[in-house]
Every structure is written in structure tokens, then in C-alpha cells.
């Protein structure tokens, strides 16, 4: 059986190493590339009529750009999909692999894991968007779509709060709501207490998005945001996302844009959602949201 990477490579169109985007094609195609130094899988639908959607994976399945594309191809959304690899994953993983990630978690999950991976992804996004513009995949100033799962969801929410690029619509799935939520998940999983420092507390204040609802909901109109959580997710605390929803809902209502924010529970879906019964419902809701809010 072909690996995901081999299967994708077999679909790649020869002669397009520089990822030159162009119009409608007879069938969906895939390209393996880098954008501003960031590893990426690019999925072209048959018809393209709206700006690209950038998608981030998480720490657990799907834990790579290839795996996320296989799980969430979104071919019924007429936009180019850009699946980005997170820092310290895939082609940018340390030589020691997961052993190094475990060491970093034990030493300082906030500053050695969350910061380089989540904040690193946020910091990379503007350069990725500029390169998409240069390659003709979008017009300068276009608003993109944004998707993130777990740690990738934290990166998507931070990107919205910090407004690093213009975003029209976003979906986050089982997202971490910031460093505090990620630390709580780490402590719950390992039984190890995290030693907070002034630097990590400052990072928590920056990344804990429930406290940044006004920043996320800014704009006229504000970004259309769908928050999806699996009812069987035992990694991300329900209270964290409930607080996020409680903070965002009145902000969107205040701007007379209540319909542009939604939080939804996918019944029976665990944190690691690939090949689970709720995966089809995830695909349906994500595609419907991006089709409704281009």
C-alpha cells in the first residue's frame, strides 16, 4: 500500500515545481512545495473561484500536512487549499524526532514547545501569504480562509487575534485555547506540574484567546468563525472552549454579526479525529462553513 506521501506524489502534475497557480483544471491536483521556507501540500480543486484556505495540522493524527490533506481534502470548496507543516514537524523535525519533542515538553512545554511551534506558525503566515500572492494564487490584499486542528487551532486563533493577515473565515477543530489550556492538558496527561516563569506568563496572556475576544471579533464584518469540538475529546477541556464561546458570542452580537460565529459539538468525536465515525461530519461542517463564508 502506498504511503500518503507516495500516493500524493503520484498525483502531482510534472512541470509545476514552482507552484504556478492557474485556473480551472479537468481534475483535482496536488503539489508538494515550500512557501517562504514552510513545507506545504497544495490542493487544487477542479474549479477555483475564491482566495486560498490555509490549514494547519496538530500534534496527533493528523500530525502532518500530508495526513491533514488526506483527512480533509475539501474538494467541494472552490478554493486552493494550502496545508502547512508546523515548525518542528515533518521535514523540519529535529534529528532525534519525537524523542526531542518529549524532552522539550518535560523541560518547558510553554517556551520550548508551544512558543516555537504555535507562535512560530503564526509568525510564518504573513510570508506564506506574500508568496502566494507572488505566485499568482491570490490577489494582493485578498482575505484568506484559515483552518487549524489542536495546536494548529491555537495558531489559527492567535492569527485572528493578532490580525497577522486578513482572514475572511476560519474553522478551528478541537483547538487549544492558548498556552494555559495547553499547559493544563500537559499536566493532566503527565501528572507533571508546569513551572511558570514571567516569560511564559506573558506568552499565556498573549495566546489565551478568551481574553482576546475583542481582537478576534474586530472588523466590519468580523471573520466568520466556526469552533468545532468533539464530545469525546478528553485532551482539551470543555470549559476552555465554553469560555471562548461565551467571550466571543456577545462581541459578534454587538457588531450585528451573530450568524458569523458558531460553536458546534460533533457527537462521539475524540481529539484525534482521523478514521473516527465523526470524521464525515467534520468534513461536512468545515466545507459548508467555507462555502457559506468565502
Please give a structural write-up:
With 294 residues, this protein is α/β, with parallel strands linked by helices. It has a single domain (4-292), classed as Alpha/Beta hydrolase fold, catalytic domain (Rossmann fold, 3-Layer(aba) Sandwich). The chain contains 9 helices and 8 strands. It has helices at residues 4-11, 65-71, 98-134, 151-162, 179-190, 198-207, 213-216, 238-254, 279-292; strands at 29-35, 38-44, 50-56, 79-84, 144-149, 167-173, 224-230, 261-266. It has an 8-stranded mixed beta sheet, sandwiched between helices. A hairpin with a 2-residue loop joins β1 and β2. The protein starts with a helix and ends with a helix. Residues 1-17 have low confidence and may be disordered.
Tag the structure with descriptive keywords.
294 residues, alpha/beta, Rossmann fold, eight-stranded mixed beta sheet, 9 helices, 18% strand, globular, disordered N terminus
Q: Topology, pairings included?
A:
Blueprint: H1 4-11, E1 29-35, E2 38-44, E3 50-56, H2 65-71, E4 79-84, H3 98-134, E5 144-149, H4 151-162, E6 167-173, H5 179-190, H6 198-207, H7 213-216, E7 224-230, H8 238-254, E8 261-266, H9 279-292
Parallel strand pairs: 3-4, 3-5, 5-6, 6-7, 7-8
Antiparallel strand pairs: 1-2, 2-4
Amino acid at each position: 500500500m502506498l504511503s500518503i506521501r507516495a500516493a500524493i506524489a503520484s498525483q502531482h502534475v510534472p512541470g509545476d515545481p514552482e507552484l504556478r497557480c492557474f485556473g480551472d483544471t479537468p481534475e483535482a491536483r496536488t503539489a508538494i512545495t515550500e512557501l517562504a521556507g514552510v513545507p506545504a501540500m497544495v490542493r487544487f480543486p477542479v474549479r477555483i473561484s475564491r482566495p486560498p484556505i490555509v490549514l494547519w495540522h496538530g500534534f496527533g493524527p493528523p500530525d502532518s500536512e500530508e495526513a491533514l490533506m488526506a483527512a480533509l481534502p475539501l474538494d467541494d470548496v472552490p478554493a486552493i487549499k494550502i496545508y502547512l507543516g508546523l515548525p518542528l514537524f515533518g521535514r523540519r523535525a529535529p534529528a532525534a524526532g519525537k524523542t526531542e519533542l518529549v524532552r522539550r515538553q518535560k523541560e518547558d512545554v510553554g517556551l520550548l514547545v508551544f512558543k516555537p511551534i504555535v507562535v512560530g506558525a503564526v509568525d510564518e503566515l504573513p510570508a506564506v501569504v506574500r508568496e502566494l500572492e507572488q505566485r499568482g494564487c491570490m490577489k494582493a490584499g485578498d482575505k484568506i480562509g484559515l483552518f487549524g486542528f489542536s495546536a494548529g487551532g491555537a495558531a489559527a486563533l492567535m492569527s485572528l487575534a493578532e490580525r497577522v493577515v486578513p482572514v475572511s473565515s476560519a474553522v478551528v477543530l478541537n483547538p487549544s485555547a492558548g498556552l494555559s489550556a495547553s499547559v493544563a492538558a500537559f499536566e493532566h496527561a503527565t501528572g507533571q506540574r508546569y513551572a511558570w516563569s514571567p516569560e511564559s506568563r506573558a506568552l499565556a496572556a498573549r495566546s489565551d484567546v478568551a481574553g482576546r475576544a475583542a481582537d478576534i471579533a474586530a472588523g466590519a464584518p468580523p471573520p466568520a468563525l466556526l469552533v468545532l469540538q468533539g464530545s469525546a475529546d478528553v485532551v482539551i477541556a470543555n470549559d476552555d472552549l465554553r469560555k471562548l464561546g461565551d467571550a466571543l458570542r456577545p462581541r459578534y452580537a454587538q457588531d450585528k454579526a451573530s450568524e458569523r460565529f458558531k460553536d458546534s459539538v460533533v457527537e462521539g468525536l475524540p481529539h484525534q479525529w482521523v478514521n473516527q465515525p465523526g470524521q464525515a461530519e467534520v468534513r461536512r461542517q468545515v466545507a459548508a462553513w467555507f462555502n457559506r463564508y468565502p
